[in-house]
């Protein structure tokens, strides 16, 4: 049991390290993307889309409009929390839940095939 806990803790810290080192090319600076009022308590948002590319700890998704954020449809990179997305492949249609993490990067907490 202790070994399992350690393995999970290690996995989580790797995910955080990758998230911190990743630079998100696309800024959500269009009108309606100001999240400053949500800094203290990041809200969970839902999205749907198609996976375009996968790298360690992150995933590029062409997502449909996300009304809760007033985002239009677009292709962008997301961080992956923990082992989220380990069973997802390029080309999969997915449903995901995300929140804004450190440095305003968008982090997928849960993702599953549609
Ligand atoms: Cu986007």
Please tell me about this protein's structure.
With 114 residues, this protein is an alpha+beta fold. The protein has a single domain (2-23, 45-113), classed as Copper binding periplasmic protein CusF (OB fold (Dihydrolipoamide Acetyltransferase, E2P)), CATH 2.40.50. 18% of the residues lie in helices and 35% in strands. A five-stranded mixed β-barrel has the order 1-2-3-5-4. The structure holds copper (II) ion. Copper (II) ion binds next to strand 3.
Q: Largest beta sheet, briefly?
A: 5 strands, mixed, barrel
CATH level-3 fold name: OB fold (Dihydrolipoamide Acetyltransferase, E2P)
CATH superfamily: Copper binding periplasmic protein CusF
Lateral arrangement of strands in the main beta sheet: 1-2-3-5-4
Under the CATH scheme, which class? Mainly Beta
Q: Which structural class do the helices and strands define? A: alpha+beta
Kindly estimate the percentage of residues that lie in beta strands according to DSSP.
Answer: 35-45%
Radius of gyration: 14 Å
How far is the first residue's CA from the last residue's CA?
33 Å
Q: Give the overall shape, derived from the CA principal axes.
A: globular
Whole-number total of structural domains: 1
The helix count comes to 1
Bound molecules: copper (II) ion
Q: Low-confidence stretches at least 5 residues in length (pLDDT < 50)?
A: 16-25, 29-34
Indicate the percent of residues in helices: 10-25%
In the CATH hierarchy, what is the architecture at level 2? Beta Barrel
Number of strands: 5
User: Oligomeric form of this entry?
Assistant: single chain
């Amino acid at each position: 049991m202790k070994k399992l806990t350690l393995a999970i803790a290690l996995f989580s810290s790797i995910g955080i390290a990758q998230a911190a080192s990743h630079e998100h090319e696309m800024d959500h600076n269009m009108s309606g993307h100001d999240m400053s009022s949500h800094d203290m308590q990041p809200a969970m948002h839902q999205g749907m889309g198609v996976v375009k590319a996968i790298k360690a700890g992150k995933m590029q998704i062409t997502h449909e409009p996300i009304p809760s954020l007033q985002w239009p449809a677009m292709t962008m990179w997301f961080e992956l929390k923990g082992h989220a997305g380990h069973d997802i492949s390029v080309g999969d249609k997915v449903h995901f839940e995300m929140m804004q993490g450190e440095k305003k990067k968008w982090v997928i907490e849960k993702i599953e095939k549609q």
